[in-house]
Amino acid sequence: MSPETNQARHDRDSVARSALALLDEVGLADLSMRRIAARLDVQPSALYWHFTSKQELLAELADRITASIPRGSDGVLATARGIRDALFTHRDGAELVLSTYALQLGSSHAQSVLTAALEAHGAPDAADRGAAILHFVLGHATLVQQRMHADSHGALPTAGEIDVTAGLDRVFDLGVTALAGVLSAPATPPRARA
Amino acid sequence: MSPETNQARHDRDSVARSALALLDEVGLADLSMRRIAARLDVQPSALYWHFTSKQELLAELADRITASIPRGSDGVLATARGIRDALFTHRDGAELVLSTYALQLGSSHAQSVLTAALEAHGAPDAADRGAAILHFVLGHATLVQQRMHADSHGALPTAGEIDVTAGLDRVFDLGVTALAGVLSAPATPPRARA
DNA sequence: ACCTGAACACCGTTCAAGT
DNA sequence: ACCTGAACACCGTTCAAGT
């Protein structure tokens, strides 16, 4: 009985996976190194063998979230939805990716997927439009996700029976198609050019 | 010599102003209740006479930042720039307003100024476009502001001599004009309708 | 009306030392 | 290679008590 007696012995991957699971349970604000350590039955200082700082751990989590973004979706809108949905996969995922991206840590996978989709569509300023769409998606998703969670637990001024999330999908689609350029706008079919 | 002997005696306004000044010096991450209290020569617990929580204080700061957004600028792009510049007026202003707005605390002054500008321009979906532009501006400004400050202090992977801020103004203008609708696009002058 | 003093339950990080 | 134990310098918040 030497293999799984009860000693833990973790590595980078097991720490990150445990942290990601804890993120879903308690949210980013309560995701502390001490809580992660407790979940692994380990002293807080043990985490610093695997990650040099909390920031590095968070960057790893952000990378795992963006890594699940599907490449080569059909069209810019579908790609943008893929990014948004990846952010929504984990609690506070948008906020986490936004702040990590701002500090220029973590990969730029989302950015590259977006510009690829734009180039495939023949957009003129693929790089600039890709950046703009990414900024919009991150801002939008951060706002919506925080609001969604605040709604589910009643901790805000409830304005009657109105669902605050209603209409936000419409705003998202409008935003992405507008930023992508006239080519992929759904309401106005592209007029054949001479 | 009774008026200004040395006793402090503060109110809501003096606390908020001191906190805003400290924000510019140390940034949002290091803006603690204890630091604000120290700056006012007061015990940390004294702050809770004026604000029920740190979150309420931060919401007040966010309101003061957005209150400086000018109403009735000429055009949607100018209005959006006014919002961005107001966020840039204080260190981490964009991040602060974004997170406060997400929690649905603080005023929606920025939102209303934007939709007003859009309606004045005769945009069809003024409310939706206003929301989309606000999400874009908040996401964009948060990203840019964090990157700007990381640049000025050398704490990131410097990719040669390239200025990271270069081209971001272009992305901002492109994003806002695209989201506002074809009417106010600068590169393509509005073709006279029949 | 506004503040002190003391406490409670937490943080991230470092570092010698253990196995 | 991976972890413990103990410490350091912090947090936000509460609450009785002072003036």
Per-chain topology:
The structure is a homodimer of 194-residue chains.
Chain A: H1 12-26, H2 33-39, H3 47-50, H4 54-66, H5 76-88, H6 93-102, H7 109-120, H8 126-152, H9 168-180
Helix pairs in contact in A: 4-6, 5-7, 5-8, 6-8, 7-8, 8-9
Chain A binds a DNA duplex (19 and 19 nucleotides) through residues 7-11, 32-34, 42-46, 48-50, 53-54.
How many E-type strands of chain A? Answer: 0
Q: What is the count of structural domains of chain A? A: 2
Low-confidence stretches of chain A: 1-6, 184-194
Strand content of chain A: under 5%
Estimated structural class of chain A: mainly alpha
Q: How confident overall, as mean pLDDT of chain A?
A: 87
H/E topology pattern of chain A: HHHHHHHHH
Shape of chain A: globular
Span of the ends, CA to CA of chain A: 78 Å
What's the CATH C level of the largest domain in chain A? Mainly Alpha
Number of helices of chain A: 9
* Global Rg of chain A: 20 Å
Say what oligomer this is: homodimer
